[in-house]
Specification:
8 strands, alpha+beta
Amino acid sequence: MKHHTSKKVTLARYGGIGKVLKQKGNYSSNEDDMTFHQAPERYGYYAFIFPYIELFLLGSPVNKAGKEDEQPGRSRGRFVEKKAKVYKKFFATDGTLWTHMEPKKRHMIISERGGWYKVNVSDLHRILENHISESQKAGAKMGFSPHQNPYSYFSKDDMEVFITRDTKINS
């Protein structure tokens, strides 16, 4: 199953793509304290492999007090953007990025941190194809069609990537 035919990877993001951001409060220098979605590096930003966008990672339009968040640019804004399909589509063309998908070939892993694997952008196509194939096999064991898109019944949160300072992107 081939989803990408070139070396560039199509990504989508809600929010800017120009500036690499400092991860305030979402980065732990202690790997043992990291959660699955914490930033693997202090500087960078999150994106999704297009079209595998996991909506629960966008946040909630309701704040912790149970009231609708009315502050501009906060989580409600991201849901409004999603409903209007206002995401930025761009391409990673070179360098490295972090993914939750564990490569089958260990030599593709540059570094590991928490539930993240740092890989070359040029290897992400093969990693994605293997991951989708393994997900289809797992779905078939659960009674789903082996030809069905596994992300119609599995979560897509492992399709989250983290863009770093050395990731080369084009919009």
